[in-house]
Amino acid sequence: xxxxxxxxxxxxxxxxxxxxxxxxxxxxxxxxxxxxxxxxxxxxxxxxxxxxxxxxxxxxxxxxxxxxxxxxxxxxxxxxxxxxxxxxxxxxxxxxxxxxxxxxxxxxxxxxxxxxxxxxxxxxxxxxxxxxxxxxxxxxxxxxxxxxxxxxxxxxxxxxxxxxxxxxxxxxxxxxxxxxxxxxxxxxxxxxxxxxxxxxxxxxxxxxxxxxxxxxxxxxxxxxxxxxxxxxxxxxxxxxxxxxxxxxxxxxxxxxxxxxxxxxxxxxxxxxxxxxxxxxxxxxxxxxxxxxxxxxxxxxxxxxxxxxxxxxxxxxxxxxxxxxxxxxxxxxxxx
Length: 335
Ligand SMILES: NC(=O)c1ccc[n+]([C@@H]2O[C@H](COP(=O)([O-])OP(=O)(O)OC[C@H]3O[C@@H](n4cnc5c(N)ncnc54)[C@H](O)[C@@H]3O)[C@@H](O)[C@H]2O)c1
Known about the structure:
Radius of gyration: 19 Å
CATH topology of the domain at 6-188 and 227-253 and 293-311: Rossmann fold
CATH class of the domain at 6-188 and 227-253 and 293-311: Alpha Beta
Helix content: 25-40%
CATH architecture of the domain at 6-188 and 227-253 and 293-311: 3-Layer(aba) Sandwich
Strand order of the largest sheet: 3-2-1-4-5-7-12
Distance between the termini: 54 Å
Strand content: 15-25%
Largest sheet: 7 strands, parallel
Number of strands: 15
CATH superfamily of the domain at 6-188 and 227-253 and 293-311: NAD(P)-binding Rossmann-like Domain
Bound molecules: nicotinamide-adenine-dinucleotide
Order of helices and strands: EHEHEHEHEEHEEHEEEHEEHEHEHH
């Protein structure tokens, strides 16, 4: 390893966002990347993924949990840690009800302790769910967090992420950790699996199979879908250019849309004849399911501090995800 090389650790690096992050990190020959992922919700086949990576000799990995990894003696040093491993997804989280806070907090503390002992810089990938609604959906880093009185698994996920943010921000001062937090907004694009309950791959699969497209509630919920490669770029910029102890929204305000409009765009871009229908998600997923509040970001801080500018519009984001799902699921174009 030369003096200019960086040893980079990515937890959850075989996940949807993590796999794009690893690809971008490997584009820079100065990075040696190590992934820790237990494959509990990975959407990829690791062998196939690694085989198509141009600089794969610079990648190594451990298939194990974050907790396992950091409990080992004699860990190698890492200059940077990108922490993405977590349970995730509106449906994906349901099976972990009551255990999300414990897992999320334990893993984050393990990383903070490692960083305090070694001086590694940390980027914690949190979530825009911490806003709990913002101002009619508008979410700025300067806004107060809103904790709803309604208990749900989604709330447990948001609270766990927020607890970690606050602890890390305090440790940035008390232990002088170099830590930044990012809050991604509705990440979408290639490799996102419908398994976690994410809306875009779900709509795309329904459209390609000619099934009804099921919009939850009245479909008026506001989201800002952000292309996964823009998010990966934002994560790297945050760690390398962000101010320690700061939080950054990583979301594309230009892609603000209602869920109903997203469904209409999916029908249009896929050429599907599927009908759009409205359903009650609690009937599908049970009483612990909760729809997210409206949310779209103010991303000025990321633009000003990090020079982050998302490059992919909504149509391109849908089209990229569509191409991926068509090839993965081997679904033919619909006439
Ligand atoms: N997808 C989104 O829209 C979105 C939005 C905001 C925040 N996030 C955050 O981004 C991060 C990545 O999300 P994603 O959408 O790529 O999800 P993902 O499920 O595709 O990726 C998570 C990866 O982490 C692994 N993993 C989970 N728990 C682990 C553990 N304890 N130890 C080791 N590996 C573990 C999984 O196998 C998976 O490969 C998460 O922290 C999530 O909270 C995602």
